[in-house]
Specification:
By secondary structure, this protein is an all-alpha fold. The chain has one helix and no strands.
Length: 132
């Protein structure tokens, strides 16, 4: 039985040694992962500092300019709309006044013409029975 224990002890020793090597490998991989993470984070921070931040500053400036321009356009559009409405209202009022004045001044002429027409019709209808 001592042979079995020696073999068992040898196997346990090998397993223990392999476990220690695995633990060292896992710890080493952890340190390598941490080092790679730090490098990536440093690279990301440098990239952000060099490219992203200046781009954001320029983008914010463009957005501010766009905001100012759109506010100006809105104000001008409202002003033009008001001027257009005022002009249309004035044209409508003028057209109404012209129409009223024309009717007022031509109503006498139209009345006179209707009277002349009625007189001519009356003269023509009075002569028609004499022809029998």
């Amino acid at each position: 039985m001592t042979g079995n224990l020696e073999t068992t002890n040898l196997m346990l020793g090998i397993i223990a040694a392999v476990s220690v090597l695995e633990a060292l490998l896992i710890v080493g991989m952890g340190f390598a992962g941490l080092k790679a993470y730090r490098r990536v984070m440093t690279l990301a921070e440098e990239l952000e500092a060099r490219h992203v931040q200046p781009t954001m500053v320029r983008l914010n400036a463009v957005l501010e300019d766009l905001k100012t321009v759109s506010a100006t356009v809105k104000e001008e559009t409202e002003r033009v709309d008001h001027a257009f409405r005022t002009t249309v209202d004035r044209v409508d009022a003028t057209a109404h006044r012209v129409r009223s004045n024309v009717r007022l001044k031509t109503s006498r002429i139209v009345g006179f013409m209707l009277g002349v027409r009625a007189a001519v019709e009356a003269l023509l209808t009075d002569r028609a029975p004499e022809q029998t």
